[in-house]
Fold this protein.
Amino acid sequence: MAVEVIRTVSIVSGIGVFLAALLTLAERFLLNYGMCKITINNDRELEVKGGNHLLGSLLQNGIFIPSACGGRGSCGLCKVKVISGGGPLLSTETPYLTKEEQEDNIRLSCQVKVREDVAIEIPEELFSIREYTTTVEKIVDLTYDTKALYLRLKDGEELSFKAGQYVQIKVPQYGKVTEEVYRAYSIASSPLQKEMIKLIIRRVPHGICTTYIFDYLKEGDKLDLNGPHGDFFLRESDREMICIAGGSGLAPINSILYEIRDKNIRRKATFFFGCVEKRDLYYTDEMKAFEKQIPDFRFVPALSAPREADNWPGEVGLITEVVDRYITDGSGMEAYLCGSPGMIDACIQVLLQKGIPEDRIYYDKF
Amino acid sequence: MGISPFVIFFASIFTSNVLLTNFLGMCSYLSISKDLKSSLGLGEAVIFVMTVTSVLNYLVYQYILVPFELEYLRFIVFIIVIAAFVQLVEMILERFMPNLYYTLGIFLPLITVNCAILGVALFIVIREYNFLQSLAYGAGGGIGWTLAILALAGIRQKVDETKIPKGLQGAGFAMIVTGIMALAFIGFSGILAIQ
């Protein structure tokens, strides 16, 4: 009996061992692409290990392609022009690329695998994006679910950015999260203050990054980030400004207000800040201070569903309704929007109706 | 069993079509048959995997399981062999035919659990085929399966624009078409019979 069991087990195991060995060898020889060369803008050359995604291979070499989703193929931001190599266009990319982009060999770098020598073109300014290691100076509670994170750069280092731009935080492996991920957050501090930046982070239930920041990160810890990214920033003009933000969308507007204050920019500006109820509001005192420091600046907080206990004296209603009440003729105005896609799309509709031209509505959806 | 491999080959395509007479491999047949291109891609993969695994499984059965009197272990062994082979094919495609690899996507690994593949391997054992008969049956079975999915995909593409009652759209309609196709294939059964 025992002999029979041993024989049976060893024969079946033997078949399994043989097949496993075969597959291991195949993996070793078939999926080993050796070193591949990435040529960037006909100028720089990188040697990378083949078989990985282009986005990650570039990242390892200090070239940061903007990506909000961290390489999952859901944000469509990491577009690069692939001149040669890179294989056929994949069905995972087509939803994010227009016909013109497809004809122009634009690809999503998080989907393209480096299996051979590849030549790509990327905007020169991406080279100025760098990785910084910062120290968490302090973490401040702003509301029950929103924190301000003050990050100090290393001595002698500076992060130069335009007010409104964002950085990507690298979340290391922690707890059950086995992979590093990157998440984008707007800088809330003044662009004149380059040795320390402030981020405003609102908790996302079960979010990989916000869980890390809320439950794991302590003052004094190191945090890696890269940036600055983004084309949402204060434009030079003297038009009247409308700023609209919801929740943690206040961050880039905060930075823009610092710039206006610190550079003595003379512009009429109104900032509409939409929240659900009073416990979601923060920085009301700071905004009141801006009203004193910046001539012609007005802060309009609005609650969409204040509680009885809130005793809210201010504006009530969806932010779009409040904006609708305040603006009559928008033809000479410029708008800066930051918030959820739903909020931004709804606001754009209202602003267009008010006569603000589409090319003067700048926004940052998250 | 003295049936000529040629007879088995043609019979497994037409009269004893593994899909239309045994109704094996229905899940991918119903879900991937929305357009001709991916049906053909999947069909090619099935032909290849079915042909090779039926031969491999025949050899494993005849030269390992039978001598050691372990015939009763054939399910687990056949499935390991099929899974390993699909894995190998996936690696080969990724390396040498990335285009096809991306077109097939998730369908390729799903072939591992395509019951038509295991079904063919088991029929070979039950009907006591020899090597050439197994080869013919594996290849014919794959081609027959592909023929059936291509026919269904073609019909589904054609009727895409017609009005189908709501309750019958999608899988319901595909089942009716499959039933009628199976009837049509029975028409061939007078010509050849292997079971």
The first helix of chain A runs from residue 2 to 30. Chain A touches chain B through 19 residues (CB under 8 Å). Chain A has a mean pLDDT of 89.
